[in-house]
Amino acid sequence: MNIALIAHDAKKDTMIRLAREYASLLAPHRLVATGTTGSRLHEQVGLDVECLRSGPLGGDLQIGARLAQGEIDMVIFLRDPMTAQPHEPDITALLRACDVHDVACATNEASARRMLLSLRVDDAG
Question: What is the mean pLDDT of residues 65-78?
Answer without folding.
Answer: 97
